[in-house]
Design goal:
Blueprint: E1 2-7, H1 11-24, E2 35-42, H2 45-61, E3 65-74, E4 82-86, H3 90-98, E5 115-119, H4 124-137, E6 141-145, E7 147-153, E8 159-166
Antiparallel strand pairs: 1-2, 1-7, 3-4, 3-6, 4-5, 7-8
């Protein structure tokens, strides 16, 4: 089965992102706006208990983090994806690093850019036009994220929560 780890922002920020996602993100129906903390990975039923146990330990070692969405950015020219940039904090970087320990297969292929996708798989002309509009609209939103979620992928490609872990920082 395929799993992933993400943090979901507040409904307020989800609504702001979804105003664009419903038009410009083909994954709009598959998952709510989120920050990907660990990309899709495979695990079977015999491995999942150990993964859940390790995630619970990680949640106890890491504090809630501030999510501050500050601007609209693009991953162009690699992909025509637009996103809300989330300022990297010590807390989110530490959490990301723990989720990429040897236990979880090591560091990811790409460097970590905390973000919330708002548009993807755009043509070059769409990308250019929409990027300009969204940059003018801008974003400046702050909140605290106090939990992350282990998700699993359904047969239709959508994602649903398997388990939720509250960030406490109790065992630093």
């Amino acid at each position: 089965m395929k799993y992933g780890i993400a943090a979901f922002p507040s409904k307020e920020l989800q609504d702001i992102a979804n105003a664009y996602r419903k038009r410009y993100d083909p994954h709009y129906e598959l998952i709510t706006p989120h920050i990907t903390l660990k990309d899709e990975f495979e695990a079977d039923s015999s491995e999942i208990k150990a993964i859940v146990d390790e995630l619970a330990k990680i949640a106890k070692r890491n504090k809630p983090f501030k999510l501050h969405a500050t601007s609209v950015r693009s991953f162009s020219p690699v992909t025509n994806t637009l996103y809300y940039k989330v300022e990297p904090t010590e807390e989110i970087i530490a959490l990301h690093e723990e989720l990429h320990s040897d236990f979880f297969g090591g560091m990811p292929k790409h460097s970590f850019v905390p973000h919330i996708t708002i548009a993807q798989k755009l043509s070059d002309s769409e990308h250019s036009d929409i990027f300009g509009q969204l940059k003018m609209a801008g974003i400046d939103h702050e909140e605290t994220i106090d939990r992350f979620h282990l998700l699993y992928k359904l047969d239709d490609g959508s994602w649903t929560v398997y388990d939720t872990f509250r960030l406490t920082g109790d065992e630093q």
